[in-house]
Design a protein that fits this description.
Layout lengths: L11 E5 L13 E4 L8 E10 L7 E4 L23 E3 L3 E3 L1 E10 L4 E6 L2 E3 L5 E7 L6 E4 L2 E2 L2 E6 L2 E5 L6 E9 L2 E12 L5 E2 L16 E3 L1 E2 L3 E2 L5 E4 L1 E2 L10 E4 L4 E6 L2 E3 L5 E7 L6 E4 L2 E2 L2 E6 L2 E5 L6 E2 L2 E5 L2 E5 L3 E3 L5 E2 L16 E3 L1 E2 L3 E3 L2 E7 L7 E6 L1 E2 L6 E5 L10 E7 L18 E6 L6 E8 L8 E6 L16 E4 L5 E3 L5 E7 L13 E9 L16 H22 L3
Parallel strand pairs: 9-16, 25-34
Antiparallel strand pairs: 1-2, 1-4, 3-7, 5-6, 8-10, 10-14, 11-12, 11-15, 13-14, 15-16, 17-18, 19-22, 20-21, 21-23, 24-26, 26-30, 27-28, 27-32, 29-30, 31-34, 32-33, 35-36, 37-39, 38-39, 39-40, 41-42, 42-45, 43-44, 44-50, 45-49, 46-47, 46-50, 48-49
Length: about 575
């Protein structure tokens, strides 16, 4: 039997001993398989053996009942009929004989496949048609529509460009001078298909999705977004269709972008804010392998954690969720420094201490109240804080303590406190009858404008007596405990209420001291104010007379000299005229 699609392979035929109908015995035909065939076109030679039975003639009959036409051969002829292969000798006797027969014919073209086999209905797709005996092809058609163009690349391949055609499968036809090869349903025309995202779109996942990426079209590579929050891909359209919008599936993989602050003290206990992605559901937070003291999941993008105690050095932060573990390497521990009070602690002072507040850590603002100064020495890097105190200066025999403060220089006409000292003794005895448990407070102010006024406040740990005044020592203007030349000599004199204003609770007094004037001990307008003073209860005359300060020795001597003169004047006024 001839193979219509590949006639160059061995095939089976029948060989008969006589021509059909010549009276030969029935069943005289025998099968014969060709062992070889020369290339076509040209004579094709078969070689085999056959035992003749009743005839001297040999006919070739193809087993295929449809005959050679259309099966790869035509114009079949026999070039040799053999010879007398049998003779009569006491009956017919036949002998085996080798023979050669030749068939001459022309092979038809054949088509075996097309690639690609699917394309757009609009045409324009270049495809390869595979087969045999394509040399000299004169036409290529798709479902009866001629190809837009074609090129015979070889005897076994044609390149053709598809024409526009209705949607559906079609037969490919290749026509040569020897015949036409057909490939049933060899190509299918389809309409354009736009890409569309599949069910994986929008579905949170901990790994890149691999299925249901596109409901139409062809899925491209799945990539992680730049901010690592989603997996992204595109569904490319088919047969000229449009690509889909970008498809995305939220990522459930956690990650940490920052830890703030980026370091903490080795003592632990500091709050750290972790910023990242997919942090909801967090089950554990560790710092350098040590579990956080505690943590709170504020949102899917933030965790607040409290650091554990940990040795100084770099420490990787890890956050564990049901979908994975996130790591952050930009964090570390530094050695904690505990605050410690310095030499100023416990040391009595008339002014707030400004140096030696802390031997370790950082000193805070010094508060002053109730007879003591207080400040804190704050630790560094999570270290502990120490609370420090120092008493005010002891200013009287009854345990009262005092401190001095001045406004900022800008609000005090430039005056600053250059010195404050609690003296151990009086520069001169107090006026007769005056009493005070306080010791003098010597103040020195500098930096102010010449002749201007400075403000100073003295604070006391216990209330000053209600009837006390603030007594100053030094020269004074006329009428302040002196007259005439005596005012130029140092003496005790009370400051008026306008220059010494006690607070309502009597726990402080604010002094207004004038350079070279009231309250200035050197009596000179030289940009420096210095003299002692203290609260004093002055002597009170019977009946509640206004207290009068005692005069100094020079004033008493002057009064002794003036007394006789005053008596003479009185006698003159009394003498009759």
């Amino acid at each position: 039997m001839v193979n219509a699609h590949n006639p160059d392979t061995p095939f089976t035929m029948q060989v008969c001993g006589s021509a059909p109908g010549d009276g030969a015995p029935a069943g005289d035909c025998q099968p014969f398989t060709a062992a070889a065939m020369a290339p076509s076109p040209g004579p094709t030679t078969f070689t085999g053996s056959y035992t003749a039975r009743a005839s001297s003639q040999v006919w070739v009959i193809f087993a295929d009942p449809s005959g050679p036409a259309g099966q790869g051969y035509r114009l079949v002829s026999r070039s040799s009929t053999g010879g007398h292969l049998c003779r009569e000798y006491m009956g017919w006797r036949c002998y085996a004989q080798s023979w050669v027969m030749q068939l001459q014919g022309t092979l038809l073209p054949s088509a075996t496949g097309a690639s690609p086999a699917v394309g757009m209905a609009s045409g324009g797709l270049s495809i390869n048609i595979e087969g045999a005996r394509f040399t000299g092809a004169t036409a290529v058609a798709f479902g009866g529509t001629p190809a837009a163009s074609f090129q015979v690349e070889s005897d076994t391949r044609i390149t053709a460009v598809t024409p526009a055609h209705a949607v559906g499968p079609v037969t490919i036809e290749v026509t040569t001078p020897e015949g036409t090869a057909t490939l049933d349903a060899g190509f299918t025309f389809v309409a354009p298909i736009d890409g569309a995202c599949g069910n994986a779109q929008g579905q949170p996942t901990a790994a890149a999705p691999t299925t249901q990426l596109c409901s139409a079209g062809q899925a491209g590579s799945v990539l992680m977004s730049g901010d690592r929050t989603a997996y992204l891909w595109t569904c490319t359209g088919l047969y000229g269709g449009n690509a889909s919008p970008q498809c995305a599936a939220p990522s459930l993989l956690p990650f940490i972008t920052s830890a703030g602050p980026a370091s903490a003290g080795s003592n632990g206990g500091e709050r750290i804010t972790l910023i990242g992605h997919a942090l909801d559901g967090t089950t554990a937070v560790t710092f350098g392998g040590v579990a956080a003291a505690r943590f709170t999941v504020d949102s899917a993008t933030q965790i607040t954690a409290t650091t554990p105690a940990h040795a100084a050095g770099a420490a990787t932060v890890e956050v564990t969720t049901p979908h994975g573990t996130a790591q952050h390497t930009g964090f570390g521990f530094v050695q904690s420094v505990n605050g410690a009070c310095g030499a100023a602690a416990g040391q009595a002072s008339i002014t707030a201490p400004a140096t030696q507040l802390c031997s370790a850590g950082t000193g805070g603002r010094v508060a002053s109240a109730g007879g003591a100064y207080a400040w804190a020495c704050e630790g560094a890097h999570g270290g502990t804080t120490s609370q420090c105190t120092a008493p005010w200066a002891d200013t009287d025999s009854e345990g009262t303590r005092a401190s001095v403060s001045v406004p900022d220089a800008a609000a005090n006409q430039g005056w600053t406190l250059a010195g404050a000292l609690v003296q151990s003794s009086l520069p001169m005895p107090l006026p007769q009858g005056a009493r005070s448990a306080f010791t003098p407070l010597s103040l020195t102010l500098e930096g102010g404008q010449t002749g201007s006024r400075a403000s100073v406040t003295v604070h006391y740990s216990q209330p000053v007596p209600r009837d006390a005044v603030y007594l100053k020592f030094g020269p004074s203007p006329e009428g302040h405990g002196c007259t005439g030349a005596a005012c130029a000599r140092p003496h005790w004199y009370p400051l008026p209420a306008s220059a010494a204003a006690f607070s309502a609770d009597r726990l402080s007094v604010t002094l207004q001291l004038t350079d070279g004037g009231l309250g200035d001990g050197d009596g000179s307008a030289n940009g420096r104010i210095a003299d002692p003073g203290l609260p004093v209860v002055l002597a009170t005359a019977p009946g509640g007379a206004v207290p009068v300060p005692a005069l100094g020795p020079w004033a008493l001597a002057l009064l002794a000299l003036l007394a006789p003169l005053a008596g003479v004047a009185a006698r003159r006024r009394l003498a009759p005229r």
